[in-house]
Amino acid sequence: MSIVEQTEFIRLCDDDGVCHCDWRLTISNCPEGKALRIMYIVEAIGSCVFALLDFRSGIPRPKPIESMACMGVAFHVVRLIQACIIITDAAPNNIAFRSWIFEFGWQCVFGAITCYLFGIAHTLSTSSKVIYDNWIHSPYIIDGAFFVVTGFPFISNNICAILGGIYIDQKKFELANTFTSALYHFWTFYTCFLGILLLYAGLRLLRLLRRHFINKPGVTDDDLKKFSLGALKVKIIVVTAFSCIMIFAVIVILYASYRYEIILYKPYNVGIGIVVTFNGIVGTGFVLFGIILNPKVATLTGLVTSSSGGNDNTTDTSVLRGSRMSKWLSSKAGASTIATPNTTVGVESSPKLPIRLPAAALDKKLIADVESGRTPESSRHHYQQSIELVGQTQSCIEEERLQYNAMISSIRAPQRTIIPYNTE
């Protein structure tokens, strides 16, 4: 039967008279009803569990992670209600409400991702002047983009979902099909746009953090471990959100173009229903894992390498830190170079940057000879110069450390002030 000959919109019948359900709106009186009922029962249980886990920290505050958790709670609560309605077949004649509540849940998870994305953008823009200049020049641009990306899906998609349901109740199937197709074309555009924006912002965030907080002199092992764990959390959240968005985008464009063919073929109908239904639950699980990940768990799972786990790891961390210090010193250095146990450092022979030799670099045999009195006068003189050099090195390192801390503490974003407009 063609779509014009159908007597129902939520159940499409084939040429043999077998009617298949639109799993978004009903699961009753169709051959795939049993499988879809199990799917919704599992979803109801999963949504209930994750809603409680998301809400465990109390009332969410307007911060990136907390805002994402707030919208995540709303998503799972709405999906729980929608699953209960479908399982119990409540309000069977109110298709407009069923259509709206199905789409509203996905708008909540869309809002959760945008809350995280733009919350991070605001945090970065106000935490460092350098990042503020490189990331975005005006916080109002972030506010405007956030309103567009978050608000438009709620406006356009709710209109299409409600009008589509109303026309289904009125038996105007052609208009209902038009608004349903428009709804999923809107979803395709929004999800593709947000997915690309999220991936770009996540990669840029990691580059900025590495450039301005890690590739600096004086970085300790704790700093490296904190950055590695923080970067891992960002990667988990970004990759999970991007994957879920792209999966949803592919399915909605298929549904927008081939809804009739998909519903009439039982394996496609059930398979797509399962993928869409559990896409949000599985994604929430990975995001929660990224949020609660701590250094101990990350080390045990091998996601972050511990610098105290063995000599090789310790050496690698020391070499990395020494190499980073070398690059910084080389920019200030002249033609001379001095080899240390971990790296080769370029220096200039000036009073501001004296030659640096650690105590371990002194000739142990020479020290023993001087202490025993078996060395000539020239060797004694050379030894005394080396001892004085080490003392100068320690005082210079302390002085430069204080200068560096003062420099870092002065890098802050400017306050968000509004310049009054002069009407004269």
Written overview of the protein:
The chain has 424 residues and is mainly α. The chain folds into 2 domains: 3-300, Rhopdopsin 7-helix transmembrane proteins; 357-424. 71% of the residues lie in helices and 3% in strands. It contains 12 helices and 4 strands. It has helices at 33-54, 64-88, 95-127, 129-135, 139-169, 173-214, 221-264, 266-292, 295-300, 311-330, 364-372, 377-409; strands at residues 11-13, 19-21, 336-339, 344-347. It has a two-stranded antiparallel ribbon with strand order 1-2. A two-stranded antiparallel sheet has the order 3-4. Strand 3 and strand 4 (344-347) form a beta hairpin. Helix 1 packs antiparallel against helix 2, helix 3 (95-127) packs across helix 4 and helix 5 (139-169) runs antiparallel to helix 6 (173-214). It starts with 10 loop residues before the first strand and ends in a 15-residue tail after the last helix.
Structural features:
3% strand; Rhopdopsin 7-helix transmembrane proteins; mainly alpha; two-stranded antiparallel sheet; 424 residues; single chain; elongated
Number of helices, where a helix is a run of at least 4 consecutive DSSP H or I residues: 12
Largest sheet entry: 2 strands, antiparallel
Catalogue the unreliable spans: 57-61, 307-320, 332-368, 370-375, 410-424
Please identify the structural class as seen in this structure. mainly alpha
Cross-sheet strand order for the largest sheet? 1-2
Using the coordinates above, name the CATH class of the largest domain.
Answer: Mainly Alpha
Q: Would you give the CATH topology of the largest domain?
A: Rhopdopsin 7-helix transmembrane proteins
Overall radius of gyration: 31 Å
Using the 3D structure, state the CATH architecture of the largest domain.
Up-down Bundle
Gap between N and C termini, in Å?
72 Å
Helix content: over 70%
Mean pLDDT: 72
Strands, total number: 4
> How do the helices and strands follow one another from N- to C-terminus?
EEHHHHHHHHHHEEHH
Keywords: Membrane, Transmembrane, Transmembrane helix
Transmembrane segments: 100-119, 140-167, 187-206, 236-258, 270-293
